[in-house]
Design goal:
The structure is a homodimer of 561-residue chains. The first copy, chain A, is an alpha+beta fold and 561 residues long. The first copy, chain A, contains 19 helices and 17 strands. In chain A, the strands form 3 sheets. The first copy, chain A, has a 7-stranded mixed beta sheet with strand order 4-9-10-6-7-8-5. Chain A has a 5-stranded antiparallel beta sheet with strand order 11-3-2-1-12. The longest helix of chain A is centred in the last third of the chain and has 19 residues. Chain A starts with 21 loop residues before the first helix and ends in a 29-residue tail after the last helix. At the A-B interface, α2, α7, β11 and α18 of A face α2, α7, β11 and α18 of B. Chain A binds a DNA duplex (21 and 21 nucleotides) through α4. Chains A, B: This is Auxin response factor. Chains A, B: Belongs to the ARF family. Chains A, B: GO terms for molecular function: DNA binding. Chains A, B: Keywords: Auxin signaling pathway, DNA-binding, Nucleus, Transcription, Transcription regulation.
DNA sequence: CTGTTGGCACACCGCCGACAA
DNA sequence: TTGTCGGCGGTGTGCCAACAG
């Protein structure tokens, strides 16, 4: 054996020099992951980053440091995104260089908008969860018929038996060769020679998944997706999990104080949720007024690397961690799920993760309203998803009801450009002329429609629908808000943040102490509270009797809360 | 296969519940590692901790954050020490809970003193570096004869061939069974059945080492020591190395500011040097006046897990990182080694790592002066090592020259108790009556001795000694210092530190800024500089022409510099 | 005394169709 | 259509003594 290249920890960093194939990376990351493009604006949530660390350590950290000077979100310029894969485990992750910004250009916002349109999920691929037979040393890999015919080069069926040699390269550009044969009674596609070394080298077990991709040059690519239980535990004999948490927060705080760049790793399969959100996506979500009882859909990954939507209901709104992350938008929605496979789906989500369904129609089963939207399961996501959600939620305003031209201006939240011009001109005519669909009083909407044709609602009274646990009437009533007063509040807060971001952290702390003593209404946290209690036309409901004690169910009017 | 326990990442944390065998841990950690006992006082060097992180990441981090408020050393109470081993790699590490202290009790200092006496290296053990044959699938493990006879249970040699079943448990209390047989021509001890699964499970390669220990209950213990090239690389897809560094420093800074406990991991085989030093060891070292050209010995680990001393010369004194860690004692000595296997031995060391040899005798080869100290290689270290070093350095004052009683009071630096009483009584009679041997002018010593019997020096003019690269006369001349003026300077600095440790970090910075503007002589860093330039009888030499540009060769008189 | 090698036996890896779900 | 099984052939693991350094 010459120069034993340490099969245990193969030459770290060698394969990293070449850039990793983006299609393959996204295939391994899963259909839900879409990275914002470099040069765009994003919202970074240190709280979510901290969750990724905790998940990676696989232990609940009792002691989580609080960083009072670190806001729960930072608007950042995303300077750089590089794709990586762990040389040992093939675990995919992305490295991002972020820089907190105090002001930003129109181009960056546009780029942020572009980010939503990118779908990186490869088109020609298949993903199979390995069976016991697949991973056993006893035999090879049974290839699903459709997958083999779609992805693999065509066999010469005149041979007896038809067979060929396949070469596929993994994330590190290592080539793996397999004997692909079509045999047996009945006939089936199999990978035989070469398969078992792949399984043992990658340390695959039943339940893990492999995926094959045919790229644009008809080259075969090969990736793996490990089962959840097998995610890298990272026992970390290097630094304590406390120091990791502190490091994450301190790095962000330092960057925020100096407007300097900092680097993070995003690990799509270890992290419970993405914590770097395109600003456009975030802003779009912010035009949704979340309310108790609101129905929504949320996308999840299927076993076959496809997507499926599950229905849920907002059951509570309030800080996930009221001590350390007060007034944070991170997972501030408590939710329940229609199909109660508890544990699989999160009990808390963030607003930008869900596709709201306007409440008056929660009793209407989706199949009726969406005959023209037969979303293929397994099809890649695209940028129109959010708009689709609106269309599906309010189809009576869409194509089915003859309002063809409405989609561009009325439904899907503001486009960023529209919003920007509004913002710059300080005019709010847009709101007056019909934007902010979810903020329009649902009661009046409901009234209009039901008076138009009530039978359409009654005829389809939901077939076997679990009873909602909250009072919908109450919840709905608070949707009566005044968009005119909301919009300024949103941006005044962010503008308040700007001078603080430019201040070194020690001066900032000093400054805060003075402010708290003398003019408490100028400190950033206080600012949020005052805007919350500012007089608006909204109603504030209290559901403390039904909600868990830890949940604050106060509904502030500021959509930026 | 029932409930596949994921051979890849075995149930993390299960084996951790039981406490790890201390003997085995220390066997795997190596003979140089001795952990301070819980309850003792230690000196923590964040710079060294940062080095461990860098070494673990196996990449030079360009960006290392500077923490101007974090001193280069923290005196801490060591609250807790727990031994651990990575479940995947068996890599040993220790978790320590430290708390910066501003004042400390006599008991704690005594405990710190005790720490030096502990030697954890097991007595009944053997360690063998695996050969190609040992790790090959072709055969078993060849046990060195002496090792087998010393450690393994005796064989029944009446059997043909003599054989038995051995059971040894590893760090995680997993049992491994081997067939131990004595056969072949010539006869030899072999481990056959069971050995290859151990090798493959632990992923051992030629060059790695295994060690067998027989504990007090005659139970066999089994550990591994991987070759350096195979140290865990920790590709860390969780947080960036920047954040790791920041986390380490921020955790320490936070703890220092609040006098609150913090947790660190010490990884003896990944870390270039220990960075948690018993206060007693540190203090003892501080009574050595390092000087350019000074000769010293330093202990290194041998392949067989023994120890060996190498001779070296101090070639420069100055900050390793003048920007981020100014006036740090961490590796502030540049050294050259007599046996020039460059790369193996560090080019920079800290004062407490070395055993000084007083300069006038650098030309005297050790064999002559130490006929009575035939240190057994492979023998465990003990607390008398430092004193031994002095004895060997100045044997003319020791047993060989008829000053039997001298060892207790004259040589080995102050005992902590002696120092404490001195400190409390503010009396310095100890210094006047012959303490601080290394601070006594070597010239006068040299003069006395040479006038006594110069032939003893000249007769043994070093046989083939590499020429020193620095001017020894110059270097020696600065050893003329006045111990009476030095001692107060030493401890006034530490007393200065105490109120600062109690101050939150932001106030501290504020305070420092004021001080720098108004009374610069009170800030901690300035204190060091002023004490350097304070009028003493010392001479300050400048060797900028011979030393590298990055090295400060100013020699302050304060031994605490 | 111990590292490597050739010889040899047998266990299990891995290819095959037969089933059945 | 595809997961598992019994069948069987061949490779490679692993025990042995013979050398040699």
């Amino acid at each position: 054996m010459k120069a034993p290249t340490n099969g245990f920890l193969p030459n770290s960093g060698e394969g990293e020099r070449k850039s990793i194939n983006s299609e393959l990376w996204h295939g391994c990351a899963g259909p839900l992951v879409s990275l914002p493009p470099a040069g765009s604006l994003v919202v970074y949530f240190p709280q979510g980053h901290s969750e990724q660390v905790a998940a990676s350590m696989q232990k609940q950290t009792d002691f989580i440091p609080s960083y009072p000077n670190l806001p729960s979100k930072l608007i950042c310029m995303l300077h750089n995104v590089t794709l990586h894969a762990d040389t040992e485990t093939d675990e995919v992750y992305a490295q991002m260089t972020l820089q907190p910004v105090s002001k930003y250009e129109k181009e960056a916002i546009l780029a942020s908008d572009m980010g939503l349109k990118q779908s990186r999920q490869p088109s020609d691929f298949f993903c199979k969860t390995l069976t016991a037979s697949d991973t056993s040393t006893h035999g090879g890999f049974s290839v699903p018929r459709r997958a083999a015919e779609k992805i693999f080069p065509p066999l010469d069926y005149s041979m007896q038996p038809p067979a060929q040699e396949l070469v596929a390269s993994d994330l590190h550009d290592n080539n793996w060769t397999f004997r692909h044969i079509y045999r047996g009674q009945p006939k089936r596609h199999l990978l035989t020679t070469g398969w078992s070394v792949f399984v043992s080298t990658k340390r695959l077990f039943a339940g893990d998944s492999v995926l094959f991709i045919r790229d644009e040059k008809s080259q075969l690519l090969l990736g793996i997706k490990r089962a959840n239980r097998q995610q890298s535990a990272l026992s970390s004999s290097v630094i304590s999990s406390d120091s990791m948490h502190i490091g994450v927060l301190a790095a962000a705080a330092h960057a925020a104080a100096n407007n300097s760049p900092f680097t993070i790793f995003f690990n799509p399969r270890a992290s419970p949720s993405e914590f770097v959100i395109p600003l456009a996506k975030y802003n779009k979500a912010m035009y949704t007024q979340a309310s108790l009882g609101m129905r929504f859909r949320m996308v999840f990954e299927t076993e076959e690397s496809g997507v499926r939507r599950y229905m849920g209901t907002i059951t509570g709104i309030g800080d996930m961690d009221p001590v350390r992350w007060k007034n944070s938008q991170w997972r501030n929605l408590q939710v329940g799920w229609d199909e109660s496979t508890t544990g699989e789906r999160p009990s808390r989500v963030s607003l930008w993760e869900i596709e709201p369904v306007v409440t008056p129609f929660y009793i209407c089963p989706p199949p009726f309203f969406r005959p023209k939207f037969p979303k293929q399961p397994g099809m890649p996501e695209d940028e129109s998803d959010i708009e689709d959600a609106f269309k599906r939620a309010m189809p009576w305003l869409g194509d089915d009801f003859g309002m063809k031209d409405a989609s561009s201006s009325i439904f899907p939240g503001l486009s960023l450009v529209q919003w920007m011009s509004m913002q710059q001109n300080n005019q709010f005519s847009a709101a007056q002329s019909g934007y902010f669909p979810s903020m329009v009083s649902p009661n009046s909407l409901h009234g209009n429609l039901s008076s138009d044709d009530p039978s359409k609602l009654l005829n389809f009274h939901a077939p076997v629908m679990p009873a909602p646990t909250v009072q919908f009437n109450k919840a709905n009533s608070q949707n009566q808000v005044n968009p005119l007063q909301q919009l300024p509040a949103v941006w005044s807060q962010q503008q308040q943040l700007q001078p603080l971001l430019q201040t070194p952290i020690n001066q900032l702390q000093q400054q805060r102490q003075q402010q708290q003593q003398q003019e408490p209404h100028h400190s950033p946290q206080q600012q949020q509270l005052t805007s919350t209690s500012a007089p608006t036309t909204s109603t504030t409901i209290t559901a403390a009797t039904t909600a868990p004690a830890t949940t604050t169910t106060v509904m502030p009017t500021s959509s930026f809360k």
